[in-house]
Specification:
By secondary structure, the chain is an alpha+beta fold. The protein has an 18-stranded mixed β-sheet that branches. The longest helix has 16 residues.
């Protein structure tokens, strides 16, 4: 029997017992696929991450060079002039991400939380003087992508990940089908925000986005889990992201979201980085941010988790323009709340 160390964090928050819980196994070598799945079920969180050595193949190196070339050019837009940008030939680590039901190729809060944990474990090189940004690359199921980590006094304070290409995969334009989605959320079709479409969108992991007219209507959704799971899985989505452009906080917030994934035994997720990244791209694509870009970038916040009493704030950085989203970045802080061991 072997023991495997894990770290539990709350992600997209700087307060314990808020945000989205995450379990990270920083040294998962030796675990089989079956053992990882069993551990994820045992942890019973929306995601559990197993950190492994990267698979250093020529194909992945080529993917790394192709996917991050533009990000490298734009790194100074995110970092300050004294930042230290790392550009290793191969990814630093490989992440495998599991829900309680299955392995998924990509997710948001697991990546943000994992690299906060690994930075605190000393895996990430510090910038000069312990302050500024370090860029690393990591391998996930959708390829090799960059991650930018901000440090203050030698400690990580924010992790910003570059997501995959923003895509609109499908639109739900049938009136009756729209009404079914509203009914699955415990709402009437008249509660939908008809100025925006219901679409399946992705920056690496597909989600079905449903615009709700008001924050009050969003907050009083009563989900029919069976019906909702049936509807969104029919469209090859991994969950339903209902949102309103009304927000709790004024200022940087541009949307408040609630993410439901009952097909993966996730009744509601308090902070969903992958879906929020796709939603950020969606809002920019449809010209629905209510703001002007600065140097071609839209920087705003998506709220989530408040109706679960786990408030989360997810930072979005989207480059491009309406109808032509070029790049989506998602970031935020994390806090460690527990450490332990699992015996296998």
């Amino acid at each position: 029997m072997r023991n495997y160390h894990f770290i539990q964090l709350d992600v997209f928050t700087n307060q314990p017992f808020a945000g989205n819980p995450l379990a990270v196994f920083p040294e998962a070598e030796g675990l089989s696929d079956e053992q990882m799945m069993k551990i994820a079920r045992e942890m019973n969180l929306s995601e559990t991450v197993f950190v492994l050595k990267p698979e250093e193949s020529k194909q992945q190196t080529a993917a790394c060079e192709q996917q991050v070339a533009k990000s490298d050019e734009q790194a100074t837009a995110l970092a300050n002039p004294q930042s230290e940008i790392r550009n290793p030939k191969f990814p630093l680590r490989r992440l495998r991400i599991f829900t309680p039901a299955r392995e998924i190729p990509f997710a948001g809060h697991p990546i943000a939380g994992t690299w906060n944990a690994l930075a605190q474990e000393g895996v990430v090189p510090l910038p000069e003087g312990g302050n500024g940004w370090t860029r690393i690359y990591h391998e996930v199921g959708i390829g090799v992508l960059p991650v930018d980590i901000e440090f203050k006094d030698g400690a990580p304070v924010q992790v910003v990940m570059t997501q995959g290409k923003f895509e609109i995969l499908k639109e739900i334009d049938d009136w009756q089908e729209q009404a079914e989605f509203a009914r699955a959320l415990g709402r009437d079709r008249e509660d939908l925000d008809e100025s925006l479409p219901i679409q399946v969108i992705s920056t690496g992991l597909s989600s079905l986005v449903v615009p709700i007219r008001s924050l009050a209507d969003l907050g009083t959704c009563r989900v029919n889990a069976g019906l909702l799971a049936e509807l969104y899985t029919q469209h090859s989505a991994t969950g339903c992201h209902a949102f309103s452009r009304e927000t709790i906080e004024i200022g940087e917030a541009r949307a408040h979201g609630r993410f439901f994934a009952p097909a993966d035994n996730i009744a509601e997720d308090p902070a969903t980085g992958s879906a929020s990244g796709a939603l950020g791209g969606y809002l920019v694509h449809h010209g629905a941010t209510g703001m002007e870009p600065t140097d071609g970038r839209y920087k705003f916040v998506i709220e989530q988790g408040d109706f679960m009493r786990r408030p989360s704030r997810i930072n979005l950085d989207v480059s491009g323009k309406p109808g032509a989203v070029e790049e989506v970045k998602v970031g935020g802080p994390s806090v460690i709340v527990a450490r332990g061991e699992v015996y296998v």
